[in-house]
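Supplementary Note 3. Input sequence used for the single-chain structure prediction.
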Amino acid sequence: MNAGIFRQIHIPAAATLREALTRLDATAQGILLVTDDTGRLQRTLTDGDLRRAALAGVDAMAPVSSLPARAPITAGLGASMRDVVTLMDAHRIDHVPIVDGNASVVDLITRRELSQKVYLSSPHLGDEEATLVQEAFSSNWIAPLGPHVDAFESELAAQVTMPYAAATISGTAAIHLGLRLLGVGAGDVVLCSSLTFVASANPIKQLGATPVFVDSEPSSWNMSPQALVGALDTLRADGIVPKAAVIVNLYGQSAEMDALLPILDAANVPVLEDAAESLGAIYKGKPSGSFGRLAVFSFNGNKIITTSGGGMLVGRDEDLIVHARKLSTQAREPARHYEHVEDGYNYRLSNVLAGIGRGQLRVLEQRVQARRAVFERYRTALVDFPEIHWMQEPNGHRSTRWLSAFALKAPRAQMRRDALLDFLDRHNVEARPVWKPMHLQPLYANCRYFTHGPDQDVSRSLFEGGICLPSGSNMSAEQQSRVCELLRRGLGQVMERA
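The predicted structure, written as discrete structure tokens, is reproduced below.
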């Protein structure tokens, strides 16, 4: 329902039944909201109410106020979608007005829209994946070995211009392997972007090392070069040389590698590029995931391409990738019997899932273009909201816009963010806050953190006002229009009310 229709379904109690019927027919929403002069909701009016009035012989020119009084069934601003559905089911109704503290209607939830969920980033599969999976079944190659695994590794490596690749069961497994291959172990220190999903940091901790978190810079939202310099200078003064650095490419956009890599090279710190969210992105003409000594990708169900669950470790050092494959299959030695001289993991991707990945990889560019188009539609639809600051695409970058993200730059940004998320949730639209930075997570409360500047915690600010919108490459035009209209309504309410 657009804002214009929402206004039109309001009707004064003095309106006649004929006027109400005409309005009900014109708006086609099945409900009218009867309000007094102050905007307080008096009752709802449905076609059933008007039909019963006609059968009772009430004159069509009688005012709506002449109908028997009936208290409206409403929900408050704090109601969740589940609360609304419970009300609908309990009272056998299909509409629930949302009222504020003054009993004024600020929103209307319909059962019809609640049956049409819009997801944040759902899998987008085609015909080629099914064909390749069928090949795996037909050949009986369904174990964590097989021709699809080999081909997927080769094809992905070629896509990102890295010579070697090892397919894993998840991006997290790939990070774990990568850090171990870089020599990270107990007592070491590893630098890591703070504004990221926890999987970027957990393997550091699980290897017995200590993460040191680095703030974002305001432009790309990725690791801040000046915060990185501050971290290295402080650690150097303490006699610490980090064992590695995990640079995250956030929401489909590469970090500023031209600034970050020379700093780390000078300090002799190898880079693991966490490109889990950025397959298909370009930085200065080179693919995301081609800058670190090692890099990782994720093919989780919500990623730009998916294998249901899976990941990939890529690199230029053949010995490291060969070792990764060995570690990912329980570190078995090349002997007739099961021989082990080091501990390993069950991290290898199955041939079936690799078949899905091969089919997905063939349409990667189409998926990137579709997500970029979704982002542009949002930006165009919300151009007149100055409080919105979109995640930028600096010169030299091509983001995949894996997730379309913006931050509210306004007083009480977090309160407004949460109010907008609640609004979208009530309409069955999935949106989420920007990642909560690692330095704010209870799990890592005791770890060191270096900000972009004095009293300038960029990651915290982005989290407090940041929202990720539905961004799937399979979103229909109708879904995009619905979300854009809801965002306009929700933002208007949030900025006016909060």
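The chain has a mean pLDDT of 94. DSSP finds 17 helices and 21 strands in the chain.
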